[in-house]
TrEMBL record, chains A, B:
Protein name per Swiss-Prot or TrEMBL: DUF2520 domain-containing protein
Residue ranges of domain Pyrroline-5-carboxylate reductase catalytic N-terminal in the record: 4-73
Domain of life: Bacteria
Gene3D superfamilies xref list: NAD(P)-binding Rossmann-like Domain, ProC-like, C-terminal domain
InterPro entries: 6-PGluconate_DH-like_C_sf, DUF2520, NAD(P)-bd_dom_sf, P5C_Rdtase_cat_N, TM1727-like_C_sf
One Pfam family named in its UniProt record: DUF2520
Amino acid sequence: MPTVVLIGTGNVAHHLFRALKENIIQVFGRNEQALREFSESTSTTSSIDELVAADLYLLAVSDDAIKEVSRQFSHVKGLLAHTSGSVPISQLSSERKAVFYPLQTFTFGRDLNFSTIPICLEATNKEDYGILEELANSISKSVYRINTEQRKKLHLAAVFANNFSNHIFQIAMEICEQENVDFDLLKPLIIETINKIEHLNPIDAQTGPAKRNDIQTMQAHLEGLQDPMHKKIYQMLSKSIRKSHEEKL
Amino acid sequence: MPTVVLIGTGNVAHHLFRALKENIIQVFGRNEQALREFSESTSTTSSIDELVAADLYLLAVSDDAIKEVSRQFSHVKGLLAHTSGSVPISQLSSERKAVFYPLQTFTFGRDLNFSTIPICLEATNKEDYGILEELANSISKSVYRINTEQRKKLHLAAVFANNFSNHIFQIAMEICEQENVDFDLLKPLIIETINKIEHLNPIDAQTGPAKRNDIQTMQAHLEGLQDPMHKKIYQMLSKSIRKSHEEKL
C-alpha cells in the first residue's frame, strides 16, 4: 500500500485524512493550531526539513495556493499530486506530477461514504498512475482516468450540478416562504427529480410549462414572482428549455 | 371510506387510480380506447347519464380543461375536486368545490410510493374537507391544508425545484459530453446536493466560485462554455448567488 504525506489542514484535507488514514504517515501544515487536530492519530509537522519520505505527497490546499505551495515540495522524490478539479497538472513544480481529484462537495463535519465518490486520476507516467490507482481503488469503487481538459469540463459541469441546482432550491424555498408554506413539501418532488434521472436522460425527464410552451401558465408564474432577479431566471431557463426541446424535435 | 368517481384517463389519472383503487367505483372518460385500460378493474363510462352517485368526483384532466369539464359535472350531488396546482378552486362550477393536489412529478409507467407524496387539500366547507382528508390520509403520510394562493406559490416553487433543476442537470450532461466524460460521474455529487439540504438550509449549503466571488475561476468557466445560452445562465445564476450572499452578510 502506498504511503502518503498529506499537505494541508482544511476541509478537504480533513475528509481525505479520514478516508486515507491507513496510508497517511505524516500531515504537513502551516497552521499549527489546525495541525493539532491530526496529531493524535499521526505524525505532524510544519517544517519542510522534517518531511518524511513517502510514495505520494497529497496537496489538499486551495486552488490558488497550489502553484506556490507545490514549489516548496519540488525537491521531493515521491509523487506530488494535487486534489483540485480546475487546476492543470502542469501547475505542479515537482518532477513527478499527478492529480487525485475526488468529485464531491465536502461539508465540514459531515461524514461521507468515500466508496461511492468518483476519484479522477491523472499522472504523467504509467508507474505513477499505478500508485494513484492502487490508492484510489482502496477507498472508492469509482476510479476514472481523467485528463486536465476533461477535468476542467467536469468541474464546470459540477458547478451546474451542485452550485446552481442548490441555488435554484434556495429560490424555491424563498417562494414558499412568501406564503408561509413549508419547503419540506417540495422535498419528495426534489428526490423524485433525482431518481428520474437515474433512469432517464434529463432531456427526456423534462416536464412543465416551458416544455409544453404553456404561455398562460408562464405568464401567471412571472406575475407571482416578487424578486426581479427571480423573474429573469425564470424567463432565461424557460427560454433555454424551449430551445432544447425545439432542437430535439 | 369515501367512494370516488375518477374523471380522466391520462397520466395523472393512471397514478391516482393505482393509489385510490379501493375507493374508485367508476372511471369517466371521453376517450373509449384509453378507458378500456381501466375497465378490467372497475366500471367505466363515457356517458354523463351513466354516472354513479359517489362521495367525491375527482377531476384529473389538464389545467386548461378543468373549467370546461367541470361544467358538465355541475349537477352532481357529491363533492367535485380538481387535482391541479395552478388552478383556483373557484374555477369549478359545482356547488361543493374542492382541490386534491398531489405535489409530485408523474411519469407514465413509473410506479410511485404515494405514502411520501404531499397531498394539498382545499375545500369550501368543513365537512367536505373531512371527506378529502379521510381519503388523503388513507394513501399518504403528508397531508396539508393549502389554500389557492399558497397552492399557486407551491406550484411556482415546484417549477424551480423540478423543471429548472432538471434543466440544469441537462446542461451539466451536455458539458460532460463535450469532453466524452460520463455524466454518471456527477450523480454522487447530485445526490449529496440533495442530502445536504435535508439538514441544511440551501443558502447555508451553498459553495462554489460565485459564493466565494472567485472571479478567476468564473472567467475560466465562462471561456469553457460553448453555448451562448449556457454562458448567460452561468452569469445570471452566479450573479444571483452573489446577491443572496451579500444580502445574508
